[in-house]
Amino acid sequence: MAAATARFDLKLKSDEKELFAEAAALMGTTTAGFVRAAAKEKARALIEQETRVSLSARDFARIAAALDKPFAPNKALDKALKSVRGSVRRA
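RESULT FIELD:
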């Protein structure tokens, strides 16, 4: 395990500290190790939850069908493409 290179101080109420210390003892680790592991677990779960897109089977089927269709620009996009063709050069 790599040595810690950053410090994070946290003020706790005494009952919170006791709770974390008791849980840490049950896990056979230090209070700091317990808090670090619990925070890491919670952070990963939250990031996973907030970055995952879940779709119903119906919505997935609609998106898949839309992706399977050939692309056709609407009038606004067609107009925008025509207006920039003269000013944009390809490398």
